Every structure is written in structure tokens, then in C-alpha cells.
Amino acid sequence: MSFLSWITFLPLIGAILILFVPKEKTSQHRFIAVAFSLLSFLISIAIFSAFDSSNSGMQFVEKVAWIPSFGIHYFVGIDGLSYPLLVLTTLLSLLSIIASFNIENRVKEYFFWFLLLETGMLGVFVSLDLFLFYLFWEIMLVPMYFLIGIWGGPQKEYAAIKFFLYTLFGSIFLLIAILALYFRADPHTFDLIQLLQQNYQFVGRFQTIVFLLLFIGFAIKVPIFPFHTWLPLAHVEAPTAVSVILAGVLLKLGTYGLMRVSFPLLPQASLWFAVPMLLLAFVNIIYGAFCAMAQTDMKKMVAYSSINHMGYCLLGMAAFTLTGFHGAVLQMLNHGIITGSLFLLVGVLYDRAHTRDINVFGGLGSRLPLYAGIMTIACMASLGLPGLAGFISEFLCFLGAFSAPNPEKIFWGLPTFKLFTALSAIGILVTTAFFLRMIQKVFLGPFNTKWQDLKDMNFRELVAVVPLTVLTILVGIWPNWLFSLMDSTLNTLVNLVQGPR
Amino acid sequence: MTEHSYLILILPILSALAIFFFGRWLPWKGALVGLCSIGATLLYSLALFFNVLSQPGFYQEISYPWFQFGLYQMEIGILIDGLTALMLVVVTLVSFLVHLYSLGYMRGDPRFKRYYAYLSFFTFSMLFLVVSNNFLQIFIGWELVGVASYLLIGFWFEKESASNAGRKAFITTKVGDMGFFVGIMTLFATLGTLNFRMVEGRITEGLLSPQICGIIALLLFCGAIGKSAQAPLHIWLPDAMEGPTPVSALIHAATMVAAGVYMVARIYFIFQYGAFSLEVVAWIGAITAFIAATMALVATDIKRVLAFSTVSQLGYMILAMGVGGRTAGMFHLTTHAFFKALLFLCAGSVIHAAHTNDIQKMGGLSRKMTWTFGSFTAAWLAISGIWPLAGFYSKDAILEQSLISGHNFLFAVALFVAFLTAFYMTRLYLLVFITEPRDTKTFDHAHESPGTMVVPLLILAVLSIVGGFLLEHPVHQLLHMEGSISGGRPQTHEIPHWIVPVISSLAAVLGILLSYAMYYKRLVSAEKISQGFPKIYRTLCMKYGFDEFYIACFVKPADRCAAFLARFDTNVLDRLGVDGVAWIADLLSKIHDWFDTVIVDRAVDIWGDLSLKSGGFLRKFQTGLVQNYIFLLVFGLGLLVFWRLL
Q1: Could you give the residue ranges of the DSSP H alpha helices within B568-600?
Q2: A224 and A115 fall within a common domain
Q3: Which of A123, A368, B378, B410 keeps 20 to 30 A from B358, CA to CA?
């Protein structure tokens, strides 16, 4: 087995191991969960030394025939696009497992599902065979369904079933598209690399239709307006750690899918869809920001802000420039880090106060200085403050979209891309407004004596959150190591879509 | 000398981090660290200043690669030239004095340590902005000073008004920053670089049309409108006075709010190339100077008077930029930093002593606070523009420039503002220090402030007195000798040298005398005047209704829009759309179920029934009796025969 298989399946091994531990020994379950996700995380870090960032192709490739009669392979590998996301997944999984130590109810099952979920997510990022890709894509849904449905909030069953059905609905489109690609390619294959070499066979209306099918499948995951309504509900009902995974990793699967499958396989259709994607990004940004501003539930606010942030990501992708792609991929990572920490932090407060309504707090800044400080950093990063991670990626997304070579014009000859990118800046303003309002209502103002007994963050919570805070600052100050990791892969991708210039 | 210029950035940020994380264990809770590091930065800046001054045309750029994406590279740079050298000294000097002053002012505050960390952080951000050699870096510094300002305005965040003011400042300046942001994107999209030098080079090559260049300049200027509190985004600065007074002196008088002016001076070449933008700049400056000065006439809070005065003076600087007086604007920025910081620190000293901000409760404090009184006098004369104090020189330079460039109307406005400035500053001076005490409790309680607070006052007082004629020549030398385009548009209007100083002095003296007559001699009653023009008085007290207008036209609609969209999202998209589809699916499944049970299954059942029933019926013929069978056989045969015979 190669490194990638170890990374992917170690959590699964852990999950199976947990099944053999008696139900009462909860500390052992926790230990196994942490140990295996930690191991997976460590290996994913360790392969960095062997990762060649100047190579734009796939690395650590492993290819084994699985169902040869249908040309299905167990085929895994990573490149500059998937490697950062892989590490993000292992990191967030580890931290959210630590953060869910306070789960007391049905611990064994909880960690079993969690580890299974991790394997599913990692599998999507490493698989290079569309069949395998789809398999992992679907496997993920089951643990997610149970995690929300059993350990969630008051409306958990409704949220879980909605999430499951909605994403399954998207998967159908994905499946049809994958089969269409399989049958159109000659020879028939699910192999992404081979499909890529044969993408000249996908022409005309076929390309457009398949792109649309894939787009719907991925758009539901991102989520792109108007397919986003499962998200706020799922976030509000899901337990903290699951929200972190949901926002931090699951949403990225959509954008990753677009960049991994749609763009390289269907370049002309992608370019043709650039302007619709720009408009959708614009709607996501503005709509998400305004919806977030109206929320009084902190978790729902952060959930809607995710829609806004994924809008930035889509904006960078719609540009089809290297700048925009860099911004988009970095935005995926940053959103995972920042929103992950925001969800963890909201969870910390919820555990203590059993409410997330921003109107009932006030003046907590003097009572919980540590919590207030970390939360303020996370909010500031989320609203795009320079020096923190969010700024660089938002800046590049905007910059990329603004300098996109797209010749489309609208309204008396104004360049469409420039106009809508400039208008999207309003989203930043609204984001600033609602995050500052949240900070003010929760931390500033006179102290609400009702919360006299609130305690500051404990050690376990700090262990879960502080690594993300540190990363937020680190990426904000020195993003170059990430760019150098992705540069050659994204360069190849841009050239592939735009055609050689 | 300049090879270690990175120290300018390193020292303040290190001290900020050290104080923030380890302040508890450091001497004076870390204040000493801040003081030393800013002091060292000040010394270094002074050395740099004299070094640059001795080498006309000095220009040095050190650039560190920051991050790279594809063909492009972003950098963090340190650009040292005359403009930077001047600004560095201003920032570090005021910052150092404020650090010193705050030792006394903030003593005993429960968050003393955090205060010093924020101060150092602010200084770092400001210096980061000042030394930047590219647009991205200046934007980053720009936002960071905004955050420092937010944190320090809301420093006493338990007060509702303080946390509101912080938020207001952040969002209002952010509005301007969005223009700045779009401007930067436009520059990058058209020129492919953000480095000042390279942008300048490409513009001189003619890669941009003057129209585009002017539009870019105005977009960038939006940032300055926000940060330098120009109309129509000036509304945040008066509220920002909720912060501790030394902070007001540092951030909201001397340095951060002047960043807009500095930015315009730094990228002046863009404005010059798209010349129509300068016209807009000049008008915005003049309008701001005027409305702020009029608002200062009626304010009764000592800090608010000073805040309005700051806005007005910033308008002056922007006006100078607009009429081609880059040097004049920067010169005024420098002298203003001295006397306005001094005014604020004096106000802090007064507030410290009197425990009130209301000037109607003060009076007669000159007897109690000699040093503060003396320093305030210097600052008062300086800002009023009395020869030979600092304000006189710089204000004259601006007035002269607007006349030379042919902006006669703007000159008249500026002159009137100079008159108003002298008037309201004298009013403040008289009401606080000279007139009889109006509130005995406040008066009895008042006392001179401790030494750490008085020393900075004296230093700034000296600078306010001599800063003008000492710096006039060096500033010209620093800013004019640069290799780049300078000076401004052709100076077409020749005027005699003596005319502007005489007119401006007259205006200042007139303002002072009028105020003296009204507030000391009481020859004319201020109340009567305000009652004579109730509408104007109310408009001024309401600050022209800007706040109300924004709340009614932007804040409320945005909130309503948000509430509407959120409702739309849950009710229409989710309930009606998604759940609707689910409901339809559910309905369909029920119809199917009905169809299945009622139609399909019934059909099956009917067949079953039919066969059962027919079986039951037919069974009756299966009697098993041979007689019956034979009977039927014969009967059938009979029927057949019968049918055949017919």
C-alpha cells in the first residue's frame, strides 16, 4: 500500500477497531479515534518532504485493477490541487475529534461514524478514477446522516434527512454525467487521466450538457445559490465537530470537483459558463452576506457567511486566470481554517450558555478575555482583514476576476467581469458589518450579569482551536509556501482551459 | 545607514507582541518596552531624516519578496525618500510622546498592559503604511491602522457609546476602502504591477489614458476620504473621541487620519496624470474644511471641538493637494501633527483634572494648570495662524498655492475657514482657561497633571512655536528634490509675495478679536446670535444631518434588505422551493400509493375475485352426479339440434 492508501484507510481501520471495543470503555474509543486520525494527519504531513511542487502531474500514484471488465481501477494520486486539501481534511478531522470529547451519548458509534466519514472525504480527494470518486462521494453521506440525525439539535431528524436527500439528489446528476463521460470516451474508461487525454472527444452539445449535470451535482455541495438551503439547517442542527467538517471539508468537495473534473475534461463548456458562474458567485456573495446579517443565531450567521465565502471562491474560479485559481484554492483552505475555528468557538460558547442568540449576551469581553481574543481574530480573518489568512485569498479572487480576459460586455459596454467583481466588494462591507455587530453584541457593552459564572476556554478547547488560529495568522503573513505548492498544477490547469497562448 | 531600515518595522511589532503576551512580567507592565522601542525608532527616524536631508534627491527602495503566483510577485518593501523621512519623524515623534504621556494618563487602568500593546501595534501598522513601496502594502497598513483605531476607540468597551463609535469608525472607513480596493484592482488589471515606481514608469510610458488614470485616482482617493474623514465620510471622527484622549491625539489627530493626505502625496503622479481628479480632490477638501469648521462653532465637548477642527484642517491639507500644493499639504500635515497633538494632549490634561468634557462647566483653569495653559496657548496661536508660529507658515503656503493655481473661489473658502478656525479656537481657549469658573466643584478639583504628562506638552509646544520657520525650508527640500514629477501644474497667476500673509493674518486676528468680544467681553451675546438664526444653529448642532441621512438611507434599508432576504430564503426558497418539491414528491408518492392500492391492486383483486366467483359459479356444475352430466349433454345436444333446424 502506498502512503495515500494509508492516509485514506487508517481512519477506516480505526473505525473497525472501535467496533471491537466494548461499549462502556469510552476513553478507549476516544483514544483510538485520536490515534488513527493523528496518524493519518502525520503521514499526510510527512509526505510533504517527498512531494515535488514543481511537478504539475500526479504524485504518489497507485493503480490497481479492480473490476477490469469495466475498466474500473483503484487509482489514487495527488497533485498541487488536492494535496493542500488532503492535509486540511486530516487536520480538521483530528481537531474536531478532539473537540468532540465532550460527547457523552453513544460514544462508540459517534467515533465509528466520524472515522468512516474521514475515510470518505480523504478518498474523494485522492481518487483519480471517477467510479472510485463517486463511491467515496456517496460513502460520505451515510456517516454524515447519522452524525447529524443522532447527535444533532432539536430538529436533527429533519435536518439529517434533508441533507441526505438533497445531496443524494445532486449525486444522481453526478452519476449520469460520469456514465455519459464513460460511454462517450473511446475506449470506455473511468480513469481521469485517460479521460483528460481524450477530452477532445467531448465536443459541442454533449460538453454543455455534461457540464451542466456535473455543475448541478457539485453546486449542491458548494453550495451555490439557489441550491444552498440545506446548509443553514444542517449547520444549526449538527453537533459542533460535524459543523466544522461540514463547512471545512464537505463544501470544498464541490469546488474541488469543479476544478478536478469539470474544468479539465470540459474546457470549452467551462469557459462558456464563465459568465453564469460569475453571476452566481456575485449572488452568493451578496445574498449570503445579507442573509447572514439578518441572523441572530451565531451558528446560522456563520453558516450563511460560508455561502458568502464560497462565493468568493467561485468568483476566483469563474475568472479562469492563474491569479483567480490561486485565490480560489487558497480560499478553500482558508475558509476551512477560519470557518472551522468559528464553528468550534461558537460551540464553546453554546456548551456553556446553551444558547447562541447574540442578543442575550453582552460584555463577555471582560469575563472571557481569551475566548474574546481568539473569536475576534477568527471574525477579523473571516471579514478579510489583512495580515490574516482570509485577506490574501479574497484579494486574489477579486484580483483574478477583475483582470479576467473574458471579453463579455454588459450595460453600455461595461466589461461584465469588472462590473460584477467591483459590485461584489459590497459583500465585504456587509460581512464586516455583521461580524462587527456580532462582536459588539456578544463581547462589548455593559456586562450582562446573567453570565456571571461563565468560564473561559479550557485546555481541550484550546487544543482544538489554537492550531487553527495560528494557521490563520501564519497563512496571512506568509502564504508563499502554499502558493509554491499549488503553482505548477494550477498553471497547467489554466493553460488547459484557456488553451495554449 | 539605511540598510537597517527594517528595524523601523521590527521594533514596534516586537514590542507590541512582547507587551501583549508577556506584559504582565515586564517592568511597568510592558510600558517601558513600548517606550524604549518607539524611542529607538524615533532616534533612527531622526537620523534617517537628517541623512536624507543632506542628500538631495535621496531615494532608496529595499524590497523583500512576499508571495508569488504565476508571473506576478507581491513584495514587502521599504521605500525611503524625502516624503517617507518626513512622515517617519512625525509618526514616531508623536507616538513616542503619546507613549510617554499615557504613563500618567492611563495609570491605574485595569487594561493598562493591553493599551500599550495596542499603541505599539498601531505604531507598527502606521509605519508599515508609511514605508510601503507598493499599493498592496499600503492597503494592508491602511486596514491594520483601521483595526488599531477600532480597538482603541472601543478601548473602554463597557461603555455602549465607545463600542458603537469603534464599529462606526471601522465600517465608515471601510466604505472608502472599497473604492481604494477597486482602484488597486483596476491598476493591477491595466498595468500588471502594484509597485509605485513601476506604476509611475508605466504611466509615464503612456499605458493609461488620462481619463482612466483620473478614474483610478479618484477610486484610490475614496480610501483617503474614509481614512482622512473627508466629506461625506467624515462622520466617524467626532464619535471616535470616545477613545482615551492620548489615542485621539495620536491616531485621530496627528497620524492615522493624515494617512489619506500622505497617500495622495505618495501617488501624486497618478492624480497629476489624470488632472481632472485633482479638481475633485480640491473641492472635497474645501467643502470638508468649511462644514467641519462651522460645526466646531457650536460644539460644547472639548474633544469634539478639536475633532471638528481636525476634520477641517485635514480638509485644508486635501485642498492643498487638489490645487497642486503637494509640499504645502505635507508641510501643513507636519505642523498640524504638532499643534493638534498638543491640543489633544492638553485637552487630556484638562479632562484628567476636571473630570468632564463639557466646556460649559470649565473656566478659569489657567490659574490651576500653568503648564497645560501655557502649552495650550502656543497651540492655540499656532492653529489660528499667528506669526511666527507653525500654523502660520503652512496655512499660508496652502492659501498661496490655491491663489497661484487660479482657484480664487477655493481661496476665499479657505480664507473664511482660517477666520472660523481662529474664532472657534479662541472660543475654546477662553471658555476653558480664561473666563471665570462656572462650575466651582470642577474648578476646585482641578490640578496640574503629573510630570510624564507635562513633558510631552512642553516638547510639542516648542515644536508648535518653532516648527514653522525651522521646517519650511527642509520640507521644501525633501519634497521638491525628488526625481519624479513634482511641483504641479504651471503656475500662471503671479501675485505679490506679501499679499497672502497679510490677508491671512488679518483673517486670523479678526477671528480672535471677534471671539474675544463675544465670549470674554460679552459685547455680543452668542446666545442671541444662535436664537437669531435658529435654523442654521440647529443644522450645525445636528451636524448637517449626515448621520440621520445615512441611517435612513443606508443602514435601515440594508437591515430591511437583510431581513427580507433571510425571510425569502427560509420561506420561499427553502419552504416553498425545496420543501415544496419534497411535498410534491410526497404527494406524488401518495397518488401512486392510491393508484397502486385502488387501481392496480384492485384490478388484480378483481381478477382474483372474478376467477374466484366464476370458479364458485362453475363449481356448481361440478356436481359429480352422472345423471346431471348426461342431462346437460342431452340438453346441449337438443339446443344444437334446435339451432340447426332453425
Answers
A1: 579-594
A2: yes
A3: B378
